[in-house]
Amino acid sequence: MRSAVGFGGRKWHGFVLALALMWTLVPIYWLVTTALKPNTEILSFPPTLWPKEWTLASFSFVLHHYAGYFANSVTVAFGSTLLSLIVGVMAAYGLSRFRFPRGLVTVIWLVVLSIRMMMPIVFIIPLYQIFQSIGLYNTRTGLILAYTLVNLPFVIWMMTSFFREIPKALDEAAMVDGASRWRVFFSVALPLAAPGIASVAILAMVMTWNDLVFGLFLSSDMQAMTLPVGIVGFITQYQTMWSEMAAAGSLAIVPVLVFTLFIQKYIVRGMTAGAVK
Amino acid sequence: MSKEDRLLKWVFVLPALIVIAGLMAYPILYAFGTSFTTYLFGKPASPAGLLNWQYAMEDPLFLHSVGITLGYAVIAIPIELALGVGLALVFRDLESYVPPKWLGVARAVIILPFVIMPTVTGIIWRLILMPQAGLADYLFSLVHLQPVDWLGNGIGAMASVILMDIWMWVPFVFVIVFAGLEALSDEPFEAAKVDGATQWQTFWHVTLPLLKPALLVAVSLRTIDALRIFDQVYAMTQGGPGDATTFVSIQLSKTAFSNLDFGVASAELFLVYVIMLLLVGGYYFVGKVGYRA
């Protein structure tokens, strides 16, 4: 038990906590119940706080019409995470174990920082033109590459700090026993960093899954369009299908909810990557 | 370092350098070239010298988007900081008499708004703010206020964006500040109690100064993310009505993909890039924030 810092009395604490939980949950509750109402009920006044008429029609509509978007999102999130991990984990190990010229290290970190902080649209405008000319526009491969640009700095950042926590002495001991550097990397460093790698992988996957903007401008049809693009498309395509829109939204946040339960501990670290060591 | 390692170390970082060169350096150089070219209907037409840059500096729509982005950041961020810090302090006090298991559950719930898909957040608020049938107007009617067409007018839409932003980001500030509070020892607070400091004095002279590093992280990250805002606004208002919520990102995408004016868009993205680098560089050199090898 910790001692209090002294910020108001118990009644006040209870009130603030209840308010914070309501404020967080009511909008999410509204989304899910909207998905379970028929459209006629959604447009009636006063709105029903509890669905009068329950229906799963919207969910089945989304599962039928949106399977392609889901498949694209899964492919892109998975592909980009894998590519960023392979390239990023190697680089992070290198940066944590070897000495590089100081100037190079500073440049690498500034690049990593500026990619991390830059608005995606800044990269998308030239990438769109380049992808158009080399045939990567509107392909899942193109999207995987584009998201790798965002995920790679994140992976390098996080993994470098994980590798630094693993004592170099372990590497050296194995090398004295005659193991090669590669052998050490694969059989000493990687297994020890496995929990870190898993959490970084989940975070990268969630960030890619959640992102709208690359998919919106680097794809044009079902060949590559991701789920958020499909959801936004609803607004323009089917003006009044509120219930279906809400169902698509509800399904889109399910995987994220499940995954974030696993990595509670690392979320803060991941979200603040680039700002704190 | 063995001889073998001297070569090998480059093998470890080479793939990353290739990816960064191909996906970041090349596009940026490409955009730099584009910014000196006139584009018509998305096709390069002729060299333009500094015309695009001149136009970018005077482009009223671009300047408007920079203005409203800064305006929204200046209004939303202080509110988010105040609420986030308050919530973190309440949590820190709850820790002294509530079982940690329950607090863990509460915390897991409270972080939801910034981990769910921002596009869906935009949809959620669109549903809540629906004229008449939405939850917001229903709550208004309970206290006998007239329904408001929130997203139908400029001021209402901007207020809605800020409201949504508060929903999304207060939890984020809370999490950072709470982590900062967790790292503090109990002593200063106990000492303040012994010295008979009032709650207000303790907050002002003990808690806040100790939280400075955490607040610096929260402020810098919120600033950067506020300037990048896109997804949830695009889903909620598409930048409308008119250009009331056309933030910088949305404006750049319109210039490039609706007007197909890649020359001007490229010049403008450099201006944004420079502003961002100055900010990031600023935070980096302020110390505390940023990586030091």
From TrEMBL, chain A:
InterPro entries assigned: BP-dep_ABC_trans_perm, MetI-like, MetI-like_sf
Start and end residues of each ABC transmembrane type-1 domain: 70-263
Entry membrane topology: Multi-pass membrane protein
Main location: membrane
Pfam family name, one: BPD_transp_1
Record's protein name: Carbohydrate ABC transporter permease
Domain of life: Bacteria
Family in the record: Belongs to the binding-protein-dependent transport system permease family.
Organism encoding this protein: Polycladomyces subterraneus
Chain ranges passing through the membrane: 12-32, 69-95, 107-131, 143-163, 184-206, 247-267
Subcellular location: Cell membrane
Record keywords, A-Z: Cell membrane, Membrane, Transmembrane, Transmembrane helix, Transport
Keyword Transcription regulation: no
Automatic annotation (TrEMBL), chain B:
Segment forming the signal sequence: none
ABC transmembrane type-1 domain mapped to chain residues: 66-281
Main location: membrane
Cellular location(s): Cell membrane
Keyword Transmembrane helix: yes
Domain of life of the organism encoding this protein: Bacteria
KW Cell inner membrane (keyword) present: no
Keywords assigned by UniProt, alphabetized: Cell membrane, Membrane, Transmembrane, Transmembrane helix, Transport
Topology of the protein relative to the lipid bilayer: Multi-pass membrane protein
Stretches that traverse the bilayer: 12-41, 61-90, 102-128, 155-181, 202-221, 262-286
Pfam families with a match to the protein in the record: BPD_transp_1
Record family assignment: Belongs to the binding-protein-dependent transport system permease family.
Descriptive protein name: Sugar ABC transporter permease
Source organism of this protein record: Polycladomyces subterraneus
